[in-house]
Amino acid sequence: MNKYCFGVDIGGTSVKIGLFTTDGKILDKWEIKTIKEDGGSAILPNIEQSLNDKMKEKLIQKSEIEGIGLGVPGPVDESGTVLNCVNLGWGVFNVTVEVTKLTGITNVKAGNDANVAALGEMWLGGGRGFSDMIMITLGTGVGGGVIHNGKIITGSKGAAGEIGHMIVNYNEEDCCNCGKKGCLEQYASATGIVKVANRLLARSNEPSYIRNRENLSAKLIFDAAKSGDKLALECVEQLGWYLGTACANIAAVVEPDVFVIGGGVSKAGVILLDVIQRHYEKYAFHAHKTKEFKLAELGNDAGIVGAAKLVIEN
Amino acid sequence: MNKYCFGVDIGGTSVKIGLFTTDGKILDKWEIKTIKEDGGSAILPNIEQSLNDKMKEKLIQKSEIEGIGLGVPGPVDESGTVLNCVNLGWGVFNVTVEVTKLTGITNVKAGNDANVAALGEMWLGGGRGFSDMIMITLGTGVGGGVIHNGKIITGSKGAAGEIGHMIVNYNEEDCCNCGKKGCLEQYASATGIVKVANRLLARSNEPSYIRNRENLSAKLIFDAAKSGDKLALECVEQLGWYLGTACANIAAVVEPDVFVIGGGVSKAGVILLDVIQRHYEKYAFHAHKTKEFKLAELGNDAGIVGAAKLVIEN
User: Fold this and answer.
1) I need a labelling partner for B175 at 20 to 30 A (CA). Which of A22, A97, B67, B279 fits?
2) pTM
3) B209-236: per-residue pLDDT in tens?
4) Are the beta carbons of A159 and B255 separated by less than 8 Å?
């Protein structure tokens, strides 16, 4: 195996790029702007330019590069075909073939960004040492990635790991952003938790640290829960129920070793892991009860790390 | 690739064995008794004897055998390690290593019987032409298998595909055989459907063909539904809801191309597929809505077919 590889995480605003050794060290990371005009046609040439510049700067030859991994914010199938990526203006084309054409490097692989981030956490983050892993990212939305045997499960059309759109409440009347009702994302995203809290607050008159807060946030709710606020604790309990039961149903399908929880909401820390795990163990099938729950560790680097891992054999 | 292979489906009562060509023809199939005494120690030697006898009978040389695939009624991990198989009296050991020792054939692979049956349906049955597939077997219990990219997802400890123990009803008060409450198996197994029907019958006085039947069965309920019986139709509708929502949540995790429905209950036919698909499409994430629903085709042969497929490269 060659000594170096690139991990590229293409986002709607910026492209994050990392230069790695193939044994898992980040040597450098930087960002370039995502130019979305003209169907995003400048994105790949700009990446190629940036990789070239970096190789010159670091005195690295192309022949020393093992490969280029790419995370893309949309569905990508096993073959590297992007299936409409509205955030970048991209239609349907094989992004790996394109990058090989531009760079002359043949080992190019691509995956959906959330799935690739999961792979990153498995390689160097919270899922280190495991090869069957579920990543759940609790942020503006709820994203996910499913890793089996050290590889991403892409799904048949690149749309696996949509954990946030598992239905966990069949009695919900409000709609999720996706149009369905009762999706995990409606309760476990940053705004979802606030919604759960507001519902609990509306149902009682009990005094609470989180009552009548103008900028009620997931952080405020967790902070209140940590200091023993009853309503905040109840809110965390509900969140744990939604996530724990979802994890139990995920385990029934793919039986991972570990669930890694990431995204802004996961900054709450161990209190979050514990409440998820408690509900998980109640609802999991007996053969699935003993699983690990870990916090993600790589933050925004998960994407470039996972992209690099795409081109490195186990 | 060599011309022949064996598929072996080890059950608690009998071992089914098939002789296949590696391009997918069943040349012969037969059964031997499963001898469970003495920790099931005679099972593998008896299989070896039976394979030898068959090769002699058919004038096939060992060198013409591509491999031996095994389905085992318990968890089996990627390496072929059986993790306690109470039905056979087996503890923890590597069944593939053992069969190689006995037969001298190196290409031996093993999987859980339900997962292996799913692989069989993908190769020569209802999932033919697809490589991302979920098999759901509706029988005494509800079993399952998850195929991604033409391979079984075993799970980290060989216990993936426990579709029957996804929770689909959080308000259930009765226990599933597994000890949990609200598992899919409680509604979608052969006895589960009867339970659903009895609950509907108890709730109304409406005359119905299925009322006061001594031997109410899934078949009777489907027959009544097909002839327009209102309560029976309502029962089928509920069954479709439970299975359809479970399939939607499965798709959120692994996004298959096709759901293949097998087991005794699936003899109901297209009426069953249609009602599952209708509810599925209502609850599935938008990127997952267009999936196929098919009936299993191989019946009891799925196990030997899938076992044979284990040792044949794609």
Assistant:
1) B279
2) 0.94
3) 999 999 999 999 999 999 999 999 999 9
4) yes
